[in-house]
Amino acid sequence: MEYLTIIWQGTGIYNITPGQCVMIVICLLLLYLAIFKKFEPLLLLPIGFGGLLANAPIVDMAAPGGILYYIYTIGIGTSLFPLLIFMGVGALTDFSPMLANPKTLFLGAAAQFGIFATMLGAVALSQFGVFDFSLKEAAAIGIIGGADGPTAIYLSNILAPDLLGAIAVAAYSYMALVPLIQPPIMRLLTTKEERSIEMTQLREVSKIERIAFPILMVVLVIMFLPDATPLLGMFCLGNLIRECAVVDRLTDTLQNALINSVTILLGIAVGSKLSAAEFLDSKTIAILALGIVAFALGTAMGVLMGKLLNKFSSTPINPLIGAAGVSAVPMAARVVNKVGNEANPQNFLLMHAMGPNVAGVIGSAVAAGVMIKFLG
């Protein structure tokens, strides 16, 4: 009986806490959304599984000496993983739609309104005692509105590392829910006639333009906003490797082996912060609420800017493409194409929406650089 007692007291069932039970259910939900609903599975799956490991009773794998601790410290603590992800994303990105229609830069910029509006809103609510967020924490929460997971992780790690788990999960969850969140906002702010607008075919962008753009952008960032250089520098390096077409092996590595490997480790590292002790508090609920506000505002402002540009543009602009400015690449562009095609079966907006989509990635990185400059 003594040995049976020892065995029983060493089981997870005996030692698990109510909070760990709640977090295990949440992590199982993330796995369900990733596997069965296919909501951002590349990251929700490793995040959910990492969360399961982080909530194992007795064995704390996220404590110093545990495997989750080392993955997090090396990859997130040094900001290595988000930067490598950005380099891989750059290698997968085609700047041509944005270069062919530079006006889409305004759509990507407008969609960043949600970031700063939510940051100011969180500060104001904290002043009235509704929440208790510092200015740095409010900035880290606001970046969720950019719908850019690596940028959210990078900025949170610098400004509010204690909130990293909740912010990362919120950012990737809302990215996964783009097909559910964005269409109602897009339909509310546009008429069927506006959604039916057909855009003219984009001009062909030369190879010289595609090669020169990432180099020029890095130089400008270094000169005017060096705090954004790590993110945009890696992004442009990946894109330059792709566009120069002289290092096919490196391009293939970035687009496949590297980004896939880092994505797995990044997800596990984020999941390690989903332990009950760190995740279950009132701040988490507030972060989730403010995050969806930021995302909705970004979508709305992108659409409204699209309506404004359409009134002054010599060529027709479908305001729906402004919703892609939130930078959830390429899902937001696909959603725009779907909603536009529903209004007009002859409407194909995917390539047009990729312009503000790419501009949104740049815009969210610039927003992060501005926040680091003043708050970091």
3D structure, described in words:
There is one protein chain. Helix 6 (80-92) packs antiparallel against helix 11 and helix 13 packs across helix 19 (282-312). The model has no long low-confidence stretch (mean pLDDT 92). With 376 residues, the protein is an all-alpha fold. The chain has 21 helices and no strands. The chain has one domain (17-375).
What are the salient characteristics of this protein?
mainly alpha, 73% helix, single chain, 376 residues
Bulk shape? globular
Our measurement of the CA-to-CA distance between the termini, rounded to an integer number of angstroms, reads: 58 Å
Radius of gyration: 22 Å
Helix content: over 70%
Low-confidence stretches: none
By DSSP (H or I, 4+ residues per run), the number of helices equals: 21
Largest sheet: none
What number is the mean pLDDT?
92
Which strand-content bin applies to the residues?
Answer: under 5%
Tally of strands: 0
* Structural class assignment: mainly alpha
Spell out the helices and strands N to C. HHHHHHHHHHHHHHHHHHHHH
Number of domains: 1
